[in-house]
Amino acid sequence: MAQLLLVGNSRWHWAERSPSGLRCWDTAPPEQPWSVPPLQAWAAVGPVPAALALPEERQLPLAQVPLAGAPAWLGIDRALAGWWAWRQQQGPVLVADAGTSLSLTLVDAQGTFAGGRLSAGLALQLRSLHQGTVQLPQTDGMDRALPPWPKETAAAMEVGCLQAMVGAIKQAQQQLERECTVWLTGGDALRLAPWLEPGRLVEAPNLCLEALDQLS
Questions:
Q1: Which of 131, 134, 152, 197 is 20 to 30 Å from 84 by CA-CA measure?
Q2: Closest to 213 (Cα-Cα) out of 21, 74, 56, 28
Q3: Backbone phi, then psi, for 158, in 5-degree steps?
Q4: Which domains does the chain possess?
Q5: Residue 1 neighbours by CB under 8 Å, 6+ apart
Q6: pLDDT at position 178, please?
Q7: How confident is the model at residue 47 (pLDDT cuts 50, 70, 90)?
Q8: How is 119-161 classified by DSSP, letter by letter?
């Protein structure tokens, strides 16, 4: 069965059609040698080693994503997520993609790219804290129940970094005067969701792969 592939900055994201819908998973980047599976379509944000030989004829370029006003420098993951969220919302959307970076992508009511913001994602923040300080430990931000005011250092780091991301999303909502629904996607979406206002939030962890499926 042909698969869909989105090459991310730190993970490779996969999907394939099943009787129950789109089945999605992610993996570490493959090592060489590697046998390329049958691909329905693929797109890339992160690097693709030439030796892995992904089929060029199956690559979806940015120009084929029907997001109006998308500049040539826009990451195709942001274009895919912004377009597909807008298509489903049929109104203005703010897509928060919580991956290696936290990208906020604004699409207006007419489906036109209206700008965005970029900041470090959870793992990148935690790694920077560990590498840039003497006493802060290394922590990977694994899923676990976290109190709002932890006493343990690693948990305090995780909550602090999560709250920085939550604050960026909430501030954007306030500045937009609540006119946009937030569509939350990316690897850390499930960790962020409990901290956000549920009534104005759509959780769509596989938004980019769903868009790739629609366009292939």
A1: 197
A2: 21
A3: -65, -45
A4: 3-58 (no CATH), 62-215 (3.30.420.40)
A5: 16, 17, 38
A6: 67
A7: confident
A8: EE-HHHHHHHHHHH-SSPPP----S----SS-SSHHHHHHHHH
pTM given for the model: 0.91
Which of 26, 77, 108, 143 is flagged as catalytic?
A: 77
140 is catalytic: no
H helices within the chain, ranges in order?
76-89, 122-132, 153-175, 189-192, 207-215
Q: Pairing relation of β-strands 113-120 and 39-44?
A: unpaired
Task: Specify the pLDDT at position 48.
Answer: 87
Across residues 20-34, what is the average pLDDT? 88
Mode of pairing for the β-strands spanning 181-185 and 93-98:
parallel
**β-pair partners for 87:** none
Using an 8 Å Cβ cutoff, are 187 and 11 in contact? yes
Buried b or exposed e, range 34-60, using 16+ CB within 10 angstroms: eeeeebbbbbbbeebeeeeebeeebbb
Measure the CA angle with vertex 54, ends 53 and 56; round to 5°.
Answer: 110
Query: Which helix (H) or strand (E) element contains residue 202?
Result: strand 201-203
d(CA 80, CA 194): 25
